[in-house]
Every structure is written in C-alpha cells, then in structure tokens.
Amino acid sequence: MNDFDLLEIANNICITANSKLAERHISVTYKWILIDEDGRGKKMELSPVEQINRTIVYTIHSLKDDSIYIQLREYIENIESIQNMLSCYGDYYGVQPDKIVYRLMESAFLLSERCFDPTRLINALERLIAIINSGLHDIVLIGRLHGVRLESELIEIESDISLIQLDKQAINERQPLITELGTSPTILDYSDSNVEIIIKEQYPISLGYNNMNWQNDLRYKLENTIKSIKLYRHGRFHVDPIRFHSNLIGEMGVNRPAPKFTTDKVVLSTDDIDDLKKAFSIVKNISGDNVLERSFSRFLIGLNEGIPEEQIVDFVIAWESLLQTVNGNSNKAELLYRFSLNGAAILCAVDDNREFTEAMTFMKEVYNIRSTIVHGGDSNSINKNLKNFSFDNLGDLNNELAKLYRNTIFWLSEIEKKERPYHKSFGWELLLRK
Known about the structure:
Shape: elongated
Strand content: 15-25%
Order of helices and strands: HEEHHHHEEHEEEEHEHEEEHHHHHHHH
Radius of gyration: 28 Å
Number of domains: 3
Strand order of the largest sheet: 7-8-9-5-10-11
Distance between the termini: 81 Å
C-alpha cells in the first residue's frame, strides 16, 4: 500500500465513522462550574455536559467489524517502524494495532465540527511514526495541586517540572462530572485550586512499558515537588487526580488518591521562584545527609497531622534528630539540657529575634510540653506551659516551631555536610562559641 491508499482508507473510515456517529444519542450529565469569584466568595452553577467523548469511544469500537477498519489496521501493521515496535513489546496492549487505530481515530475527531476528519487521521499517523523513529517518547505526569493558589502563569522549578496556573475556562474543563466516580465519595468541586503540576521527561521507547522505572521516576519528582513546597510554605497540600500521558500511546492511567479537603490557601507568585528552586534543591539532595533526611521525614509527618498535640510531638522529634547526640546512657535531664542548649545555639544562628537565654528557655518549654503530652498530661498542664512563653494555643506554637525549623533547614543546607554541627567534631560547642 502507498500514500494514495492511505488517503482513500482515511477518507472511507471517516465517512463510515461519521455515519455511525450520526446514529448515536449523546447522553448528558452535569458538573459544577465556576461562574464568578471575588473576596466575598464564589458563584457556582450546575451545568449540563454532553458526554461526547463516551460517544466517540462507542463509535470507534463499533467500527471493528467493518472492512475499512480492517484495511486501516492492516496498513498500520505493514509499516516497518510499527513492526519493529511490536517485535519489542510483544503483546503489550498499548501498542497493538487495534489500540493504535483507536488513538488515530480519536485524534481524527474534530470537536468543533463534530466529525472525524481524514487529514487529522493522516497527520496523527505521521506524528506517531516520527516518535517511533526517534526512539524516544515524552511521558508527562499531570497532577492537580490542592491547597495552593498561583498568581503567575508559570513557576518553573526545574526544566522538566512546572507549576501551571489554570484560568477559569481550564478549571471548568477539569471539573469532575457528578457521575464520574459512581457512588464513591468524591469532591465535586476543585475550583478552589488553580494549579497543576506538570512533570515531563523523555524515555527510550526500547525500555518497554512493563518496566515501571518511568512511573517511579515521575512519582519521585512529584513527591519532591510537594516536599519542597512544604519546606518553603506552611500548609497541607495534596495532589488529586494524577494522570500519566505518553505522546506515543496516549493516556496511561489516572490515579485518584483518597479525597481530601483542605482549607489552606497558600499563595505563590513569581516572587517565590528562587526560594522554591532552592527548596527543591535541598529536598533533592537531602538523602545525602542521613541526619537531615531522618529529621525532615518526621517534620513532614507532623505537617500532615490535624491534631495539635500529635503535631508538636512529631515536630519535637524532628528537632531531636538534629539536636541530641545519640547516647544510650543519657538521662531525661541531660536530653532536655542538650535539646535546649543546642537548640538555642542553632536558633541564634538562623534567627536573631531571640537572645540566647530566651531561645534556650523557648526550646526547654517546647520539650516540656512534648513530655507533658507523651506522658498523658491534661490540657491544664499544657496551657500552663504555654503561658510560660506567651502562646495562646498549641496551633500558634506549632506554626512558630515549623517556621524556625524551615529556617534551620535552609541554613544547614548552606553549610558543607561535614561542617554541620551534628557531624563536625565539637560542632555544637563551636557553634555555641559564635
């Protein structure tokens, strides 16, 4: 077969598909769309949505027994580059001729005209062959980030990792259908979030699709992106849904973590780009320091805690990992002393708002509150501790502890690993002298 055959096949299969499409009823469902929002709130409307994509799927599947469909599939099977690809992947469904025909027909659909277009089909096949011949394909992770609002169109954390601002039209396009997850509990309004995380990477086609290294790689970068935002700003952030897309085989699955609600509204803009990049660099390299990695891991656990008493315990453990020398013979008094002394030394290095004795008292009282909670103390005991250093509630204290911890991590990251006080010989003592 030659290009003239392809043009004839493309014309005929699109004519057949358009005929079948005209016979189908397009069902309607609903979703909440954002009409307007301002400082006083937002106006939403339950809007009808034609399920045209479902109709397209049914139409394409209805072609499978038609001779013109078989001709297109045979044409594809005889393309050398596709034969080579099939020999690599065996029976992997995503690259089988039937799946390729489906994606080509899907690409051929012209939404504005409600029809399948042969020129679009041929162009899609040419793009597919070019990707195969290049030996590389782009895989993109797209995750909707909740708890953050973006005030700039783009924040590029690295060349392959970006935060993208969604306008109102894009937000409404992505609003979930009320029937999308059946009777499963779900969030039907994502309009409070206007951010998507886009992570794009090229992988050799020769790796195959049963090899999940690409997915592990992209998920690792996503986790580091979230961690870097948490290191930079205080809040509870989560990603839902997470989609994977390949320019070779199309959609590669959607992951929907358990639905969560968040009232946090951290705002990011172009002014935050440099600090976010720095935070990402810290997170990416933190595994090179086991002390810092262990401490930061506990800090992240604390950030996800909704109970203030549990959160301060996690935060103090994160601090302990940095401040206390591991010594099986240490007693409670020595641990408290080391926590408050080393804590004061490092706080004075990163935060000049407290004098040394004030910083030492602060860290001592924090440790005492942690001990009160761990040993079953009542709320009156905790409130008494809080009054010792003028905090109204545990939530405020936790916010202050988190802020100081972030400042400390940024400060430590500027110091060569072997020179950090918990690694250097007499490191804490030398820091005290400063």
